[in-house]
UniProtKB/TrEMBL annotation:
EC number: 1.-.-.-
Cofactor(s) of this protein: FMN
Entries under InterPro entries matching the protein: Aldolase_TIM, OxRdtase_FMN_N, Oye-like
GO cellular component: cytosol
UniProt keyword list: Oxidoreductase
Name recorded for this polypeptide: N-ethylmaleimide reductase
Family as reported in the entry's similarity comment: Belongs to the NADH:flavin oxidoreductase/NADH oxidase family.
One MF annotation (Gene Ontology) recorded for this entry: oxidoreductase activity, acting on the CH-CH group of donors, NAD or NADP as acceptor
Species this chain originates from: Bradyrhizobium ivorense
Length: 375
């Protein structure tokens, strides 16, 4: 049998992807305000990137009002947000595409100015992100991160219920599945990692205890969706937002082998050679490869992301390290990315200045290859 290519089909849960060029979840800070509901511009953006049988993972969307740390992020907890997302999903489906929603809670990567009632952000423990990382307030000031409020043990089931409700809302909006955001230093990763989790209850201490929150969230979400329409994203070697486990292997081996038993749609990594949140252009060499190290522990579909080009993506598939490759920044600047990769067309470079916030510029105005040819 020939090794898989970016353009061979792939079964993901109940779906048959027609190619393996996945759009990575990308926060773009362009939701309607104050509703934080997706609007027609967002539907246009996703529809531009949809292809028949291609998988898009929509941007991280908080499941509850305490889950925000940035302005203009779309939520998935109000009726208006569900209605807005439904329009996005319909636009993607009209082009034959598939779309999952990434479920999010930022935990301590926030500021009280984003929180209901101006309260402190919540986290597993009252441990602030180190001052070398800067926090942007709702009115645009750059400050130190605040020390978050540690969630009480009795609040944790409520938080899990928020993920469950977010999953139900995503189902009501018509999504094809959901991805649980367990990466990049946000709430679930704060529970996973020893630097942000100093708890002494059943959610802290041992690896098994630190993995418990991830497992309970995943359990709740799979009860809504069925395991085969749920993905989980992890960044074992990431350092985004003050994260990073000194010795990731025991922690992530336990998490991944536990998740593997559930029959999920896929596991999704962020490779450490890219900046987890795309805020810097880096290509760290000589770093561990999440897909290479953890693939042997994962029996299902493995998606990975991080500084891939068409060639390196093809190589990762051919060498059996991953089953599909998610592209972030190049999907921003190349709405027709799968087609360009298939035909070896040149890629349009991305403009970092328009990643976060704004309107059409740098969002829906990137040309497709044919328009460039005609220009
Ligand atoms: C503008 C921007 C926003 C991002 N937002 C998210 C997000 O909402 N959720 C997430 O898991 N990763 C997010 N990421 C990380 C990307 O999904 C991806 O893993 C990363 O950009 C590496 O892939 P790339 O090198 O192809 O861009 C973001 C990255 C960028 C550049």
């Amino acid at each position: 049998m020939n090794p898989p290519s970016l353009f061979s089909p792939l079964k993901v849960g109940p779906y048959e992807l027609k190619h393996r060029v996945v759009m990575a979840p990308l926060t773009r800070l362009r939701a309607a305000r104050p509703s934080l509901a997706p609007r027609p511009l967002n539907a246009e953006y996703y529809a531009q990137r949809a292809t028949p049988g291609g998988l898009l993972i929509a941007e991280a969307s908080p499941v509850v009002a305490t889950g925000f740390g940035n302005p203009g992020v779309p939520g998935i907890y109000s009726e208006a947000q569900v209605a807005g997302w439904r329009e996005v999903v319909n636009a993607v489906h009209a082009k034959g595409g598939l779309i999952f929603l990434q479920l999010w809670h930022v935990g301590r990567v926030s500021h009280s100015s984003f929180q209901p009632g101006g309260a402190l952000p919540v986290a597993p423990s009252a441990v602030a992100i180190s001052p070398e990382f800067r926090c942007l307030t709702a009115d645009g000031k750059v400050v130190d991160y605040e020390t978050p409020r540690a969630l009480e043990t009795h609040e944790i089931p409520q938080m899990i219920d928020a993920y469950r409700q977010g999953a139900k809302n995503a189902l009501a909006a018509g999504f094809d599945g959901v991805e649980i955001h367990g990466a990049n230093g946000y709430l679930i990763e704060q529970f996973l990692q020893s630097r942000s989790n100093l708890r002494t209850d059943q959610y802290g201490g041992s690896i098994e205890n630190r993995v418990r929150f991830l497992m309970e969230v995943t359990q709740a979400v799979t009860e809504v969706w069925g395991a085969n329409r749920v993905g989980v994203r992890l960044s074992p070697y990431g350092i985004a937002n003050g994260s990073g486990e000194a010795d990731p292997m025991p922690l992530y081996s336990h998490a991944i082998t536990s998740l593997d038993k559930l029959g999920l749609a896929y596991l999704h990594f962020i490779e450490p050679r890219a900046s987890g949140t795309g805020r810097a252009d880096v290509d760290w060499k000589d770093v561990p490869s999440a897909m290479v190290l953890y693939r042997p522990m994962w029996s299902g579909v493995l998606v990975t992301a991080g500084n891939f080009t068409g060639d390196s993506a093809q190589r990762a598939l051919a060498e059996g390290h991953a089953d599909a490759i998610a592209f972030g920044r190049y999907f921003i600047s190349n709405p027709d990315l799968p087609r360009r990769l298939q035909h070896g067309h040149k890629l349009t470079p991305y403009n970092r200045a328009t990643f976060y916030g704004g309107e059409e510029k740098g969002y829906t105005d990137y040309p497709v290859h044919d328009e460039l040819e005609q220009a």
